User: Fold this.
Amino acid sequence: MTSREVSISSFIAPIIITLLVLAAYLSRDSWLISIIHQFPDAIQAAVMLNRGLKTLLALSFCWLLSRLLNDFFWRRIVPAKTGRPAPQLVINLTTGIILVLAIVLIAVLLLELSVIALVGIGVGVALIALLFFKEFISDVLAGLSVYFDNVLAMGEMISLGDQASGIVRYIGWRSIHLEQADGRITVVPNSIISANLVHRLGSKRSLSFQLTLDFSISVERAVRVLNAALQSCISSGMIVAKPKPHAYAKNIGEYGNLYAVTCQFDVEKHAEGSVSNAVLSQVMKHLDSTGLSIALPRQQVFVGEARSDIVRWESVRDRYVLLGSIPLLQTLNDEELQQLAACVLIHQVKAGATVLKEGDLSTSMYGLAEGLLQVRAAREGDQDLVIASMEPGEFFGEMSLLAGEPRSATVVAHVDSVVFEIRQSDFSEILEKRRELVDSISHMIAERQVTNSELLDAATPEEREAAVDEAASSLMGRIRGVFSRMKTK
Assistant:
């Protein structure tokens, strides 16, 4: 049975009874006269029956009115107009008012009490209620104010200054329930809500922390790395994109520059502890992958030329370490890595700038040293679709470098980033000296392609190995063709 059927069925009984009593009341003259003619001594009983009929009509009308207000007005019209359910407090109050009205009608129609006497009794009862139930009435009236003034909403974060703060979980007659960060529930009387300044923080809560990085790290570089970590947290859904999270240099500390990181998260989706863990993990991951670290109290003694342990991409040594971490280049020996590191180009890429364009015929391979990149695919008549994000340490464009293939996707800087470029001409010198590298590199790329292929998810190990060998053989021929053509030019 649907809610609409339940609402309609709840009106049937009061409507039928009200109509029957109304019909009896409208025809009372004829059947009352008939009763008096048959029983002349029953005049007083007929009078009482007439009063009872009036009272029954009034009570049936009150019953029907209560049903209309509760099931139709409060539960259907009000939610449709306001977008939120009517508070049970208001529903109960209207029901109480109708009940009082019914009692008054009984007193006036059946007991024939005067209206003045009833008013006097009502005033006396009200004064006694105000005297003994002052706090209760104050809380109830404050609860009405909270609802009709739209002060609070379920699920939002509020702060009452030093009194209390938390997520609104319940709004009732006399109090609201606030959930604290540790899961505890605090019951706050509505009178405190109305007497204090309420700060509405929505369902978002701020998270901020500070960290100190070495003086030798430029502010621009530190902020770039920290903002890239925050963007990674947005991509994972742990923090919200608006208001925009950001990192900035705050002060100069004893051991390094002090940086502040601020962001917001949805308390309805994530607990503060899990968000804090995720954000700090991403910050430490990005710092570690870019060769940066938290500044610690220390004393260093240098003999000869002082040298910092901070990674600088201008240094061939640091570029050598970076290239050695790329799986594709781990087949190169130390001498070859040193040679390649000396030729690597470093690019500072601003947020929003395009690193690669889908379909381009450029032949360099790239890697991300710092920042965050987005991989996008073109969609007809619409904006590009973001299909992946790349974090520091990842590389791309190897098929263009080795096989001369056009770019398969567009790569855009999501934040200010540092990208290194390996040119095809520089890589060809290494392959020319050691031709067997083509075999190992082809096999490594083929393994990655087969691993990422959804078509081979259900394949047996033998089928996967055969697919790797076939892809490696095809790729090896294309690589040798590309570099042999370069040699003849």
